[in-house]
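agent> fetching stored inputs for the nicotinamide-adenine-dinucleotide docking request
agent> found them:
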Amino acid sequence: MATNSLFLLPGDGIGTEIMAEVVKIIDWSNAEGLTDFSTDSGLAGGCAYDAHGEAISEDDMAKALKADAVIFGAVGGPKWDNVPYDKRPEAALLRLRKDLGLFANLRPAICYPALADASALKRELVEGLDILIVRELTGGVYFGEPKEIIDLGDGQKRGIDTQLYDTYEIDRIARVAFDLALTRGKKLHSADKKNVMKSGVLWDEVVRGVAKDYADVSFNHILADNCAMQLVRNPKQFDVIVTDNLFGDILSDVAAMLTGSLGMLPSAALGAPDPVTGKRKAMYEPVHGSAPDIAGQGIANPIAMIASYAMALRYSFGMTELADRVEGAIAGVLADGLRSADIAQENRKTVGTQEMGAAILAKLKA
Ligand code: NAD
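agent> prediction call returned; pasting tokens
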């Protein structure tokens, strides 16, 4: 009997095309006895709105809550631009993040040697780059109350957002980041603005406290603005960076662009460990959207989606060897010169979604 369950939500646009390539890899690894995944799939985003009048149905939410990991494609598209706000495709993502309690967003920035010339930075600065940004996802200034615009009279208004963090929120994200650092380069930077923000002072105090439990990890504090600068000056100095919701939003996009195309970027969102089983709720998804401009053409890059699945193998199931193999297969096809349209290069072969997926699967089989 299958012991590990995956719930697949391909979504809209290219979501379905790139998810199909992941399904082929799951089918292969199950047949080889390397995994024992049971899979089920549902609707999220515009397709769910068309079917049920909601961005995600209660039935599919229940399945997502029960699964060991959710693998998510992408949602949205012009067809649903005018649906009611609370039913728009992106509402599915927000609901999943909220109900699954996904407070830790993992955004790796890996520069494959074969693509080092596609970066905006010089090859020597990015070749071999492997950074993991751990962003707090459910707190901070995006959610803090009060959050409003008030009328001051005399034509003046005041816009208010509130940055607030409680000890437990900082403690749990710091522990996720330190645990991850232990499995990687054992180096962690914590980025905040403690020089000007009280929430930053508390952030630093709590992270330093957690650091005492991780003697094997080298801990470094960095101001968030300096972190942004260092990411483009000398990105290879970083291993894991932990930061809050706002700074993480910005720093992870900076780090992502060091590596080239949106079609290459995976992500994970993790919740708290279950007190009984120790398993975390988790969702894995490419950073990009549903790319309506190329949907249906069979030319989307499936690498971000497949790399997101590799993250699921690593972080939800501890299948480090298989995750390494999948990531190695991606690096392998790129080294062989295969490129999807978004990363096309002169003198390299441009292939479609299915051909790229098939080449990665062939490398896995080899
Ligand atoms: P997008 O990421 O869908 O596309 C931006 C550009 O990158 C497009 O030119 C697209 O063709 C290209 N691109 C993206 N992924 C690619 C891939 N795998 N292969 C090749 N090219 C790729 O962002 P957008 O155009 O701003 O948004 C389109 C829709 O997606 C909107 O409805 C938006 O709300 C939604 N969206 C969803 C998510 C999500 O589901 N997580 C994230 C971002 C945007």
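agent> quick read of the result: The longest strand covers residues 4-11.
agent> awaiting further instructions
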